[in-house]
Amino acid sequence: MMVQKAKLFLDETLDGLERNGLRRELRLVSSSQGREIVIDGKRVLNFCSNNYLGLADDPRLGKAAAQCAEREGFGSGASRLVCGNMMAHRALEERIAHVKGAEDCLVFSTGYMANVGIISSIFGRGDIIFSDKLNHASIIDGIRLSQAECWRYPHGDMNALEERLKTAGAFRKRVIITDSVFSMDGDVAPLDKIVALARRYDCLVMVDEAHAFGVMGKSGKGLAEHFSLEKDIDIQMGTLSKAAGSFGAYCCGSRALIAFLINKARSFVYTTAMPPSVAAASLTALEIMDAEPHRREQLWKNANYMREKLKEAGFNTMNSQTPIIPVLTKDPALAAEFSRRLFEEGVFISAIRPPTVPAHTARLRLTVMATHTREDLDHVIRQCKRIGKDLCLI
Q: Kind of pairing, strands 235-239 and 249-253?
């Protein structure tokens, strides 16, 4: 009877998702992740990837990984506390710490594991966390695991944040946690104002630089560099799977912070380390990012051009300020239909629907890359305008 009830629960849930236009399925990619991909057997322009600098299919990363695999093997054997650091892991951590201007760095296997491990190990009962309402799910889950008190402030609302900070003096530890670039909206956190409030009310600051690392700042170090606040952020987290085109995540901060995480972050302690070849590929990506700033310059040219043309056409791109450009449809079914029609015209842009975004804010999440050509951009703009008119979006 219990097995039958469980099956009924699964079927009913999936049927409900289908009725509401919210069911999602995996699609098969049979190519590398570049400006063009082959998905479900069709070659299309890729405008939904976080591969901002076009490094995911750069042969230099593959070569670095292969060379490291020959030296250090592929698997890591166990957790790094059990089997020890591989040379590639430590070389990557030293490079990231240098790039971010931090005393030390710890690499995690994924961004999700980094946020969950950092937040749940440092904060707990008796502490309070102030979290932007649009922060990534991994931050939300880390807060839940921490069992700390949490107050989610309205997105980017510094007045509301300050009013709540004024009443938080009794808590043992206080921290403001924010994404730097919000992954579904493409806007940026007012990090300068957040840091000012944190100093006024004796708070720590933790920033998730996942979509800013390699993109924001004069040299691509992130939003902290953009605001010249590198020394004012207590906990800097970011990923290597987006602009760096590789895999994994990092946490930068003081030597004491990193030593603490090595001992207390369960998502680091109790998992097998990433393959050293992946760390070697990430290290090569960082070297390329430093040596080839034209990639970032081209990315911003493409992003600004695409955003302005879509706005001129009448699309609602919300408050996008980055290479992440949402095209708001509100209705989930409309977003899915828009995405389907674009795919027929050789353009792959995913429909983003609840619960990934709040109800009534379904959208296409369009992202540009440094490797997109002007012809690519113009083709997407033409198709968006034509289909957008058909769907009465503009």
A: antiparallel
Residue 167's contacts (CB-CB under 8 Å, 6 or more residues apart) are: none
CATH number at residue 343: 3.90.1150.10
The range of the structural domain enclosing residue 41 comes to 21-50+293-390
Q: Domain check: are 188 and 332 in the same one?
A: no
Which region, left, alpha or beta, applies to residue 215 given φ > 0 means left and ψ of -120 to 50 means alpha?
alpha
Asked if residue 1 has pLDDT above 80, the reply is no
Q: Which residues are catalytic?
A: 183, 211, 242
Distance CA(112)–CA(129), nearest Å, equals: 18
- With 0-12 CB in 10 A as exposed, 13-18 as middle and 19+ as buried, what is 121? buried
Q: Where are the alpha helices (DSSP H) in 35-122?
A: 59-72, 80-83, 87-100, 111-122
Give the ranges where the chain is alpha helix by DSSP (H). Answer: 2-19, 59-72, 80-83, 87-100, 111-122, 137-146, 158-165, 191-200, 223-226, 255-264, 266-269, 276-291, 294-313, 332-344, 374-390
Last residue of a domain, one of 265, 291, 317: 291
- Residue 208 structure tokens: 């998730």
Give the three-state DSSP class for 27: coil
Q: Identify the band that residue 380 occupies on the pLDDT scale cut at 50, 70 and 90.
A: very high
What is the distance between the alpha carbons of residues 183 and 187, in angstroms, rounded to a whole number?
A: 8
Contact (CB, 8 A) for 142 and 119: yes
Cα(first)–Cα(last) distance of the chain, in Å? 52
Q: What is the pLDDT of residues 6-48, one digit of tens each?
A: 888 999 999 998 888 888 888 889 999 999 999 999 999 999 9
**What's the predicted TM-score (pTM) here?**
0.94
| Single residue among 233, 259, 291 that ends a domain in this structure | 291
Contact status, residue 38 vs residue 28, Cβ threshold 8 Å: no
Tell me the C-alpha distance between 42 and 48, whole Å.
Answer: 16
CB 363 within 8 A of CB 326: yes
Question: Do 349 and 204 share a structural domain?
Answer: no
Residues near 351 by beta carbon (within 8 Å), at least 6 away in sequence: 329, 332, 335, 336, 338, 339, 362, 363, 364
Please give the tally of structural domains in the chain. Answer: 2
